[in-house]
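We were asked to recover a plausible sequence for a given structure. The inputs and outputs are reproduced exactly as logged, with field labels preserved.

PROBLEM: sequence recovery
POSITIONS: 272
GIVEN STRUCTURE:
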């Protein structure tokens, strides 16, 4: 059997994309998904995403981590499936799709995909020597501020936190942040499921942008009547540049958008 696939990447976070509107892919076969994502014995990717029909939205996103297990919401994967759906002619400029976390709105304009993320209303402030936070932006994320990020041991320190007593039961993604300037961050991420550093993590940079409003309380925003204060933060990751916009009203964050490019790399078939 030949499996036809597309390969997409969003700031270096790469995914095997499968048009599964006919529901022929065996989504229960974790070993197959893991093999397809393997960088030596398969296609190679941080995850695999199925695009399926949905009765209440333009399409449905089903996301699997590279270990073959179905995962929580993936921000860059969400942007990539929007680019994939646009390529398939499912929508023109604006779309809405269902994923594990519910309905997501998105748009594509001049190559930039803006994906609306879930509202956030709970941020746990850590007690570490440097500022640290934990929050859920569709996936759980630890955010820690460090110096010298370019030479930081992201794999070793990220793995230690991910498997610490606090998080080992369910796991967490781990992000390390260094402030470049006001409203501009550098971020590196250790992702659970991949169990390694990735070039980018969409829900991770979203978590970092929100954490920055706590770590940098003097950051200027724009007041919007009835919506709180609006911010847009630029974020540099190993795979490129992203931006996160949101409104903050007290400890509630709404109208959160992850913005950046998502591009098709190649397509092909694999003999199963």
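RECOVERED SEQUENCE:
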């Amino acid at each position: 059997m030949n499996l036809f696939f597309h390969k997409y990447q969003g700031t270096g976070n790469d995914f095997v994309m499968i048009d599964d509107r006919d529901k022929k892919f065996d989504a229960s076969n974790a070993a197959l998904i893991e093999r397809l994502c393997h960088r030596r014995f398969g296609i190679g990717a941080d995850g695999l995403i199925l695009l399926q029909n949905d009765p209440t939205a333009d399409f449905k996103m089903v996301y699997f981590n590279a270990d073959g297990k179905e995962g929580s919401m993936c921000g860059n994967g969400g942007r990539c499936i929007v680019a994939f759906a646009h390529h398939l002619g499912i929508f023109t400029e604006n779309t809405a799709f269902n994923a594990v976390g519910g309905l997501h709105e998105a748009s594509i304009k001049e190559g930039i995909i803006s994906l609306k993320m879930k509202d956030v209303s709970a941020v746990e402030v850590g007690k570490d020597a440097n500022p640290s936070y934990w929050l859920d932006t569709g996936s759980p994320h630890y955010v820690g501020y460090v110096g010298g990020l370019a030479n930081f041991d992201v794999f070793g320190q990220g793995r230690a936190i991910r498997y610490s007593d606090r998080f080992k039961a369910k796991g967490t993604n781990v992000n390390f942040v260094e402030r470049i300037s006001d409203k501009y961050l550098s971020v590196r991420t250790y992702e659970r499921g991949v169990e390694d550093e990735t070039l980018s993590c969409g829900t991770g940079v979203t978590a970092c942008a929100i954490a920055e409003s706590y770590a940098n309380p003097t950051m200027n925003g724009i007041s919007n009547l009835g919506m709180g204060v609006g911010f847009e933060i630029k974020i540099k990751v190993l795979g490129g540049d992203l931006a996160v916009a949101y409104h903050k009203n007290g400890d509630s964050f709404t109208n959160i958008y992850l913005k950046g490019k998502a591009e098709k790399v190649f397509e092909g078939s694999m003999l199963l």
